[in-house]
Amino acid sequence: MKTVNQKAWFFVLPVLALVAFNALIPLMTVVNYSVQETFGDNLFFWQGLDWFEQLLRSDRFHAALGRQFLFTGMILAIEVPLGIAIALAMPRKGFWVPVFLVIMALPMLIPWNVIGAMWNIFTLPGIGLLGYLMNETLGIPYNMTQDPVAAWITVVVMDVWHWTSLVVLLCYAGLVSIPDAYYQAARIDGASSWKVFRYIQLPKMRTVLTIAILLRFMDSFNIYTEPFVLTGGGPGNSTTLLSIDLVKIALGQFDLGPAAAMSLIYFAITLLVSWLFYTLMTREQAK
Fold this sequence. Notes:
By secondary structure, the protein is an all-alpha fold. The protein has helices at about 10-35, 50-55, 60-90, 95-110, 110-125, 130-135, 150-175, 180-190, 195-220, 225-230, 240-250, 255-285, and strands at about 35-40, 45. The chain has one domain: MetI-like (MetI-like fold, Orthogonal Bundle).
C-alpha cells in the first residue's frame, strides 16, 4: 500500500496562518458590529438581528442591490463575448503576438483610482475630449453629471475598456494550448469556422472561461473605486451601487451596525452566486 507524505502541509501552514489573520479577524470584527450598536467611546449595546431585518426590508438596500446586479449582468454580457471575439482575432504566431499581448495588458496595469480620474476628465462636457466630441462635433447631448443614462453608459464603457483585456488574455491562453492536430483534422473534414469554434475552440476554453466569468463577476459585483471616482454615485443615486452605498453608510453616516450587517449580506451574496456559477459551469463541463 502506497503511503502519502503529508509533510508538504508544513510549507502551507504559514500561508494559511497569514490568510486567517488577514481575513478571519476583520470578519469577526464585522460580525461583532453587526449585532451591536455603538455611540462611540467604545460603548456597545446588544442589537441582535435587528440590523439585518431592517436592511432586508429597506427599499434603499433593494435598490442598491438591484443596481449592482444590473451592472454586473451588463458587464458579463458584454465583456465575455467581446473578449472571446478579440482572442479569436489575435494572431497565434509571429511578430505581432507580443505586441497585441502588451496592448491587451496595458489597461489592467493602471490603478483603479487613476482609471476613474482619467475617464472623469475624458468625459466631462466642458473639458473632456469625449464630452466635446459628443456635444459640439456630433451634436449628441451628453452629460454624465446630469443624465442618469449617460452616467450608466459611461460607467459600463469604462469597465469594459478596463477589464475586457482579462477575458481576452485568459481566452487567448486557452486557444494557444489547442494542438494543431485538431485544426488539421477539422480542415480534412471540411468543417466550417463556426463548427471549429463550437466543437474545438469553445470546449477547450471552458476552463479558462469559468475562471474569467468568476473573476469578472466577483470584481464587478464588488467594484467601488472606478465608479465612485467617476460619478460619485450620481447623478442622484442612479449609479450608487451596493458597494458605494455601503461606504456611505459606514463612513458618511457612521452607522457601523447597519454597515456591518450590509457587508455580511453582501459577502454572503457574493459567495453564493460565485458558488452557483462555479457549480453550474463545472457540471456542464463534466457532461
